Structures are given as C-alpha cells and as structure tokens.
Amino acid sequence: MATMHGAATAGENLAGNINFYTMYVKTLDIAFTGDLVNQSQQNMDDVVNIISLVAQPLIMNNPVSVSDLTGIAPVLVGAGTIFKFAVEHGRVFERDGDNVSILKELFHGITIDSVALDSTKVEFSMSDLL
To answer: Are residues 44 and 30 in contact, defined by beta-carbon separation less than 8 angstroms?
Structure first.
C-alpha cells in the first residue's frame, strides 16, 4: 500500500485572481430575502444562476436600491439597483478587450420576471479592487 505525505485542512481558502464586478439594473426587483416564494428572491436566484454559468460568485452583497444611477452606473440613469459580486477567475468575463463582454452576452436578451433585459436596463463594470 502506498502512502501519501502531506497536510490536509478543513476550510475554504480564496486564492488569487479575484475580480470584483458591479451589476447596475433598472426595472428588475432583485434582493436576497431568504423567502423562496418571494419574487425578488427568485429574481436574485436567476441573476446568480446566470452568472454561475461562467463563474461561481464567491462574494456577493445584498443588492442596494438607489434613486438615481446617474454618475454611478456607466450610462444608466434613473432609479435602479446595484449588485456587487466577486469571482476567483481572473478576467473570466473578458472578450476582445471588454472586461464585461461575456456578462453582457449572458444577460442581454433574456427575460426575468417579465422584464426583458438589454443595454438600456442592465450594465456591468469590473474592478481589481473591492
């Protein structure tokens, strides 16, 4: 019988290549409510599931509603919601120099809770820092 030498520990550790993303969304009610029958929670679950098609979010905030996205979102204005999350895969959503290109492809054209998402309702930004 062969023996392996080394150390084992229980726990979760984050490695490197953590990128932080922000989703700016209008007209879609998203929130972590903890109530599985709540529509806001179901919408939030849909958002996380779509992101998870490419990379599992490791860190997420509870989405924050704001009265005006002007000056916060890249282009969107008016009332909306901000959702921040982080993944442990460096630039996993990047394509052709656009670091959120794949996120846009994932969300633009889908419908969640009768809200058709496109570039007038959802935007993304990426940062190497929290």
So the answer is: yes
